[in-house]
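Anyone able to model this chain together with zinc ion?
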Amino acid sequence: MNQILYPGPYTINNRPIILKPWTVNFDFNKEFPTKIPFWVKFSKLPMSCWGKGSLSQISSVIGVSIYADECTAKQTRISYARMLIEVNVTKPLPEKIVVMDPTGNKFEQEVFYDWKPKFCPKCSMVGHTCTKKMPQP
Ligand SMILES: [Zn+2]
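re: yes, here you go
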């Protein structure tokens, strides 16, 4: 399962395929899942933040970290760290997050997504965004 799940994201005709580990209570008839695992890139992440603990702490700002890709885990490619994170797509995804390195310095870290699902807050549905503006509260 992991050999299939981790090399993603996959697309067919430029449409993303969402892969999720099966769970016992999974139900096809229920509404579309809102917690979706996808790959997130942290480019130019300082080396001091590449520990397993640091990476999962940084990822926790965005969602629940599932897996670091092999190059990230082995630190064989240091231009960016890449993590598979389960994200709640009903919440806005940050483009930047504030990270504190082990010496206590805070810095802004850019966040890149291989693919970002569309979420329509008006219809509470994944897959599109309504063009009409929501009424302001
Ligand atoms: Zn909509």
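The chain has one domain: 31-126.
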